[in-house]
Write a structure and sequence with these properties.
This is Phage portal protein. 48% of the residues lie in helices and 13% in strands. The two termini are 35 Å apart. The strands form five sheets. The protein has a four-stranded antiparallel sheet with strand order 4-5-6-7, with no helix packed on it. It has a three-stranded antiparallel sheet with strand order 3-2-8. Strands 1-13 form a two-stranded antiparallel ribbon. It is an alpha+beta fold and 458 residues long. The chain has three domains: 2-175 and 317-373, no CATH class; 203-268, no CATH class; 381-458, no CATH class. It contains 15 helices and 13 strands. The protein is extended and about 120 Å long. The longest helix is centred in the C-terminal third of the chain and has 40 residues, at 307-346.
Amino acid sequence: LHQDHIVGSFFRLSHRPSWRYLGIGEEEARAFSREVEAAWKEFAEDDCCCIDVERKRTFTMMIREGVAMHAFNGELFVQATWDTSSSRLFRTQFRMVSPKRISNPNNTGDSRNCRAGVQINDSGAALGYYVSEDGYPGWMPQKWTWIPRELPGGRASFIHVFEPVEDGQTRGANVFYSVMEQMKMLDTLQNTQLQSAIVKAMYAATIESELDTQSAMDFILGANSQEQRERLTGWIGEIAAYYAAAPVRLGGAKVPHLMPGDSLNLQTAQDTDNGYSVFEQSLLRYIAAGLGVSYEQLSRNYAQMSYSTARASANESWAYFMGRRKFVASRQASQMFLCWLEEAIVRRVVTLPSKARFSFQEARSAWGNCDWIGSGRMAIDGLKEVQEAVMLIEAGLSTYEKECAKRGDDYQEIFAQQVRETMERRAAGLKPPAWAAAAFESGLRQSTEEEKSDSRAA
């Protein structure tokens, strides 16, 4: 849920260097950004996964993994490494590090300057991290490697992203702690309901006879006299002969005829809900509130929802996801991007504007300033939301950049594609699609009439 709504299928870079602070022109900054974005996409989304030390993930996959890691552990770790091979243009690589591997050396207790595997200074700032080496298959002695947070030149060496809730905190907190009890209750409730459903599906068939109690006990418990044994044997023989002589079938199924005085009864369990559905919804709502998502998204139950209710629920979750994108996914992505940008500038894959006031080492944040475009907002009613976007742009309350970003698109790519399509249509002798505007106006009028009729009906 977090991966799909925060990151999506492609985590797109929107490079925006602080051109005023750097002392360059806006056009120079745009030209530089286009070069950077093209080179970054070639490096980050390479199908050979050269950005990953393990050669398993692209950049977007690493961001998705980081978001999932943060959702379960409250923090994420990424190690920036340097590839010694000379077969590739860029040597910068990254390694995803599990939070379980960050611990104090030799599993010792915390001290003033080393807490939970994080070495800090007297002010509480992290200086480095102790990472336990992979001891697979298990018989190797455990070793720890100290990795500095930054190299002497300012390049990030170990990326640690978490949201502290108090001073002195060195590690993140699992967000599932607040709802762990309810999740266990929900699991127990579902297992109990499954057992109840299995019991309800079972039935017992009994044949009841009008035989008196004394005779039935004699037959069941047996008797010592020869006469009783003969009577029991004769009675069982009569029953067997009777049922063997009545092979009546209906549609291929056998319908037995019972002896006079016998009756066939089916015993079933009571079919009661006992408030299971209401209790399950209550637990899911509590869990959804603790995780910052809506009940409908967590349960995938959108029944009995109006457009207004669905939109309000989606907007509330969207605000939560945007916060996570800004403070988790974007922080991880920006620090990884800065490591690559430094190498790209040194290798002259991209060239800084000549009139810049500061070098890259002097203004890392200004040169690496960027936004990240992830998945778009869920469209509940596509027509109404497009109408809203058009009205906001026409009223001057929004821009194409913001509205396209809400849909997970880059407005520059859309504009460039529209220019290409327009030129191709003209070259092919095709007229502009005037029907599109007419169709939009018709849809707008129809939607307005429907809203008026709904308000009158209410």
